[in-house]
Design goal:
This protein is an alpha+beta fold and about 210 residues long. About 15% of the residues lie in helices and about 30% in strands. The chain has a single domain, classed as Hotdog Thioesterase (Thiol Ester Dehydrase, Chain A, Roll), CATH 3.10.129. The chain has a ten-stranded antiparallel sheet with strand order 2-3-4-1-7-10-9-8-6-5.
């Protein structure tokens, strides 16, 4: 397994959602990241652990169990309007993130803005080379932005995805995120991806961890 450099999150490491999708290999799994996923580096799966060549554990992969919560849908036009309020336009901890970085013209350009109920919403035009790891990536950052605030960066720690149906290239989808709970440095979030017809395509449960220092 290799995470190509274009799929970065923070500088020098893989986007958490995309990397977890690669590690899951298309299965219904929960992936726990134990270190920032290295880019352009050969990784191997050994007894449910993703390991680098030096033996360090990058991630752990386990059955996901239930991913039981869906974020309530909104219309595409409402998601477009919400994205104009994306906080990352003004203050982004990782502006070159493949998923939500405003400095990435070649990224997914998912810009989740707050809705009145505190959830986040964004439109997403699906790339022609869409893959399951890209769907995992699309389900990643919108949840994080339900808790990220100016001067309070978070990174993905764990994510479980239930992928029911792949979106088609050029589909205009909506992805939503919601904060469920916080405890110390950890935040539990949910995300849901809806297709052009309003049907649910995929959902995720994730734990984000506040960056200290």
């Amino acid at each position: 397994m290799i995470i190509p450099a274009r799929f970065n999150g923070p500088p020098g490491s893989g986007n958490g959602g995309y990397s977890a999708g690669v590690f899951a290999g298309g299965a219904h799994c929960e992936v726990t990241l134990r270190m920032p996923p290295p880019l352009d580096t050969s990784l191997s799966m050994v007894d449910g652990q993703v390991r680098a060549a030096d033996g360090s554990v990058v991630a752990e992969v386990a059955p996901a169990g239930g991913v039981d919560t869906a974020v309530s849908p909104i219309g595409y036009a409402d998601a477009v309007e919400a994205s104009t309020r994306y906080a990352g336009f003004a203050d982004h901890p990782f502006p070159t993130c493949y998923v939500c970085g405003p400095d990435r013209a070649d990224g997914l350009r998912i810009f989740p803005g707050r809705v009145s109920d505190g959830t986040t919403a964004a439109p997403w035009t699906v790339p022609v080379d869409v893959s399951p790891p890209m769907v995992w990536a699309a389900l990643d950052c919108p949840g994080g932005w339900a808790v990220i605030a100016a001067g309070r960066p978070y990174v993905l720690g764990r994510i479980a995805v239930r992928l029911g149906r792949m979106p088609a290239p050029s589909d205009r989808c909506v992805v939503l995120g919601a904060l469920a709970a916080t405890k110390g440095r950890k935040a539990l979030v949910h995300t849901t991806l809806y297709g052009p017809d309003g049907a649910e395509l995929a959902r995720a449960r994730a734990t984000w961890i506040a960056v200290v220092g």
